Amino acid sequence: MTNLTVWVLLMPLLGFIILGLIGRAMSRRGILAVALGASGLAFLFTAISFLSMLGTTPASARFSDQVYYTWLNSGITVGEAPLTISFGLLFDPLSAIMLMVVTGVGFLIHIYSAGYMEDDPGFWRFFCYMNFFIFAMILLVSADNFLFLLIGWGLVGLASFLLIGFWYTRRAAVAASQKALVINVIGDFGLMIAIFLIFKHYGVLNYFTNGNGDIGVFNQVTAGGIPTISTTIICLLLFLACTAKSAQLPLYMWLPDAMEGPTPVSALIHAATMVTAGVYLVARANPLFQVSPTALIVVAITGGITALFAASIAVFQLDIKRVLAYSTISQLGYMFMGEGAHNYSGGIFLLTEHAFFKALLFLAAGAVIHSLGGEQDMREMGGLRYRLKITFWTFLIGALAISGIPPLAGFWSKDDILSSLLANATTGGGRVFYLLWVIGILTAGLTAFYMFRLFFGIFAGGYRGTGSTEHAQEEEEDDIKHGHQPRSDYEINESPAIMTVPMIILAVLSIVGGFVGSFALFGDLSWHPFATFLNPVFTNPTWTNVPVQVPVDTLSIGWLSTGLSVGLSLIGILGAWTLYRNGFFYKENKNPFYQLVLQKFYVDEFFILVLIRPALWTGRTANRLLERDVLDGGSRSIGKVFIGASGLLRRIQTGYVRNYALAILIGALLIIVYYAVRG
Amino acid sequence: MSLNLTWYLIVSAIIFTIGVTGVLIRRNPLIIFMSIELMLNAVNLSFIAFSHYLNSVDGQMFVFLVLTVAAAEVVVGLAIIVSIFRTRRDIDVDDMNVLRG
C-alpha cells in the first residue's frame, strides 16, 4: 500500500511557510501557484494513497502507522514503560476518508477563493492562512496519537481564529474571532484533561501499538481492565472538546458569528472540515466510547437536541450565511446522533456528503454575495434565477441534497442514520432512541423548509435590493445619454468560471456522492461500500450486544422510516413553496414565541447576563477596590515618601550662584574652624 | 619695623576677603570674575611670601600653575558669559536660576 501521508502533510506546510515569509512580495499569480500547488499536490498524494488503499486486500492490511521520530522520552513511568511520545502518521480507512474530504474540498475551495478574494488587499495573507489551516487539519486527522491530535486540534482553532478575523478592521469580525477562540479553548481544555486521564490510566498516548512497541490505548481498551467509570469520564471530556469544535449545545454560539469571515472560509472551515473534527474524534475514539454506553447516550442526545434546536433557529434567520451556519450545526448534531447510535460509519458518511453539499451551498451563497457586492440579507435579494443561472442550479442541487430528496447525497446518509436510530430503538438500545428517531425525522422536515425558504428568498420573485435592476438600467441609460462609459457594476452578473467550476464539481458530487451508501432498502442488505470500507475501524470482537451495523431486519420498518423522512421533507419544501414562491417577504411579528426563535432563544443574551456581565463586574470591582487602592495605592505611597523627602531637599537648590558660593565659603570656614579648634 | 611674613599674610587675607565679598554680593558676572581673580592673586601673594620666607621655589612654581589655570578659567568663563548674553540679552546672575530644584 502506497502511503504518502507525510507528503500530504508537508505540502501545505511548505506553502504556508513560503507564503508567510515572502508572500507579501509575491505577485498574485505567484501566490496562487504556491497555494493551489500546495493544496493540489496534497490532494493528489491523498488520492494516490487512497486508491492504493482501495486496491489493498484483505481489509485488515489497510492500516499503516508510520512513526517518524521520537519527540519526547520522559522518565515518568506509568505501568511498564516510560512515557514516550513519537510523531507518527496513521493511515487507515477513517483517516483516508477524512484526508480525501479535507484535501479534496480544500483544493476546490482554494480554486474558488482565487476568484472570490481577487480584489482583496489581503490576498497573500488569505492563502497563507488557508494553507496553514489545511496543514493543521491534516495533522489532526492523520496523527497517530492523542498529543498530536491535540496539537492539530489547537492549530485548526488558531487558523479558524485568524480567518474569522481576516477582515480585522471590522469590529464584528474581530469580536467573532475572539468569541470563537475563547469557546474553542473550553473544548481544548476538555481534550487536554482527557489526555491526562488517558495517560494516567493507560500510560501511553498512541492510538494503536506502534513501531516502538508501545501498546496503544485502543489495544489496551479492547483487552479490558480499565474501570468503565474512568472511561466514561474520559469520553465525556473528549465529547466536551467535540461540542466546542463541532458547535454542539451548549458551546455552539461561536459558529453563527464565525460567518463574519470570508465565505470560502465559512465553506471550508466552518462547514466542510474543521467543525467535523468532533465527529472524527468520536469515530476515532470509538473503542473508548463503545466501552461506555453512558457517554454514547450523551453524544446521541446532545446531537439530537442540537439538530432540532439549530434547525428551528435556522427557520427564522434573515442572513443567508447564518441560515447555513445553523444548518451546519443541525447537521453536525445529526452526525453525533448517528454516532451515538453506534453507527460511526453513518456519522462519517453524513460528514462526507455534508462536506459536499454544504460546501456547495456556501460557495453558491458566496457567489450570490459576491454578485451583489457583499449583500447578505435575504430581504435585499430575490429574482436572481435569471441572472445567476449556474448559481441557481447548483444551489438547487445543494438544497435538494441537504433536504434528503432521493437519489441525492443527503438522502442516503440521512437515511443511514435514521435507520440506525430505529434499529437501536427496536433492538433494545433504549427508548430514548425512539425519541431521537422522531427528532431526526422532524429535523429533516425543518431542514427542507428552511433550506427552500432560503432558496426562494434568493432566487424567486423580483429583486428587492435597494440598487434594483430597473434603477440600475436607468443609471446605465443615463450614463450613455451623457456620453459616459456605463459602469459595469450596475448589472448583477454571474461569477467567473474560476468560482463556478468548483461549484459544479461539488454539485456533481452532491448528486452521485451518495451512491456508495446503503441500498438496503432495495433488498440488498450487503451493499454499502462506504460502511464496508470503514467498518474495520469500527469493528471489535469484544464489543457486546451493540448493533454496530445497521440491521434493518424488516424492510417494512426501514421503508416506514425512509417514507416518513422523505415525506416530511417534501412537505417542508411544499410549505416553503406555498409561502415564498413569489419571493421572500418579511413582516414584523410581535408574537413572543416567534420573537423567541428569531432572537435565537436569547442564548447569547443569556450568556452575556450569566457569564460576561458578572465577569466584567468582578473585574471592575476588583479594579476599583483591590487594584486602585491596595495594589496601586501601596506601590504609589512608597513613591510618595520619596517625592516628599526630595521635595524638602530640593529647596536647597536655589539656582543662585551666590548661594552656592556662600555654601562653599561656609564649608571652608567650618573646615578651618575644625582644624583650629582641634589644634 | 621690618616687613616680615605676617604683614604679607595680612595683606593677602584682606585681598582674599575683598574677593569673597565681591563674589557674594555683586550681580554682574564680570565683577564676580574680577573678584575671583582677586582671591586667586591673594593666594598667589601668600605663596610668594611663604616661598621667600622658607627659601624654597616650590611656592613660585605653584603661582605659575595658578596663573595658567586662572587664564584658562577666564577664557572659558568669558566665553560662557558672552554666549549667555547672546541668548538672554542680560547677564544678571540673579536671573540665571534655571538649575533651581
Description:
The complex is a heterodimer of chains A (679) and B (101). Chain A has 679 residues and is mainly alpha-helical. Helix content of chain A is 69%, strand content 4%. Chain A has 25 helices and 2 strands. In chain A, strand 1 and strand 2 form a beta hairpin. In chain A, helix 2 (28-54) runs antiparallel to helix 3 (93-116). Chain A is globular, with a radius of gyration of 31 Å. The model of chain A is unreliable at 541-552 (pLDDT under 50). By secondary structure, chain B is mostly helical. Chain B has 3 helices and no strands. Chain B has helices at 5-25, 29-54, 58-88. Chain B is elongated, with a radius of gyration of 17 Å. Chain B starts with a helix and ends in a 13-residue tail after the last helix. Chains A and B meet through helix 25 of A and helix 1 of B.
Roughly how much helix do the residues of chain B carry, as a percent range?
Answer: over 70%
Task: Please write the string of helix (H) and strand (E) elements of chain B.
Answer: HHH
- As residue ranges, the low-confidence spans of chain A are 541-552
Rg value of chain A: 31 Å
DSSP strand tally of chain A:
2
